[in-house]
Write a structure and sequence with these properties.
The chain has helices spanning 2-19, 201-206, 210-219, and strands at residues 30-33, 45-47, 52-59, 68-78, 84-93, 98-105, 118-130, 135-145, 154-161, 174-179, 186-190, 195-199, 223-224, 237-247, 250-265, 271-282. By secondary structure, it is mainly beta.
């Protein structure tokens, strides 16, 4: 009887120990976004052309201590209305109980993203998996921003010698093939496929950045014209005209400030031709 009682005591002890073993309800490894100076964080707006650091830190489950096996990074880019434009995955085989991932980010525009202030979204999803196939994920959502760039006006010079076509206008989608016979003004026209606009002079000063220019032409506060005849082909003068063009998908603002008329004569004082030079700035 004593031996049987002892056996029952031992059985009860084993049952008690087994019942106290904690059940692991979340056996997956851990993963978190690295934080610190220049590390990106969820919901951040980042600028095109700037360097940022993407970082993740993963570790084995503190109870199972199962070694890590793979780290997967999914990157998805979308438009502002969440239309997916491109995506890619990368998988890295890892080992041990800890893993850190870092990558320098520098965003740029693609052909299917518009050049405006906010241009796209980027979603980074990092997934860590251990040797038992248990996994965990975390996600960073970023807004990609096109910061305003100051416009630097550049000088232009359009020259027409006698009856020859004017030179220097092609990049703006313009041509200068004639002068008016009655009014005697230079006749500037858009080439095929280009549009031409008459703009208020005060708008030239107000448009200071590429974002300003995009907003200006998007709002449509200008008049579409078939030609421009503001510069005299007879007398040298200063002007304050602003015209615009859209050519090959690009908008131009053109500030005409002077027209110079020069009569070319021969040794006998006879007029050979009249040269006209139109100058100003564009942006």
């Amino acid at each position: 009887m004593k031996k049987l009682a002892l056996a029952l005591v031992c059985f009860a002890s084993v049952a008690f120990i087994a019942s106290c073993t904690p059940e692991i309800t979340n056996p997956e490894p851990s993963i978190a976004v690295k934080t610190g100076e220049n590390y990106v964080y969820d919901g951040q707006t980042v600028d095109i052309g700037q360097n940022y650091t993407l970082g993740f830190r993963a570790a084995s489950n503190s109870q199972t201590m199962k070694e890590l096996a793979t780290f997967k990074l999914n990157v998805k880019f979308t438009t502002l209305d969440d239309t997916e434009t491109r995506t890619y995955d990368s998988i890295i085989n890892v080992s041990g109980t800890e893993y850190t991932f870092e990558q320098v980010l520098n965003f740029g525009l693609t052909n299917n993203e518009e050049s405006r202030e906010l241009v796209a979204k980027a979603i980074f999803t990092a997934t860590i998996t251990d040797v038992d196939g248990k996994m965990n994920s975390t996600t960073i959502n970023l807004n990609i921003n096109q910061p305003a760039v100051a416009l630097e006006p550049k000088d232009f010079s359009w020259v027409r010698q006698g009856s020859n076509p004017g030179e220097g206008l092609a990049e703006y989608g313009l041509e200068w093939k004639s002068n008016g016979s009655k009014e005697d003004f230079a006749i500037i026209k858009p080439v095929a496929g280009a549009e031409m606009y008459l703009i208020l002079p005060e708008d030239w000063a107000a448009v200071k950045t590429d974002v300003d220019k995009a907003a200006f032409f998007s709002d449509g506060v200008y008049s579409v014209i078939s030609d421009f005849r503001g510069v005299s082909a007879w007398t040298s003068k200063d002007y304050d005209y602003v015209i615009g063009t859209r050519y090959n998908g690009e908008y131009h603002m053109i500030h005409i400030t002077h027209g110079e008329v020069q009569t070319i004569t021969n040794s006998q004082g006879q007029t050979i031709r009249t040269d006209i030079t139109i100058t100003g700035q564009s942006k």
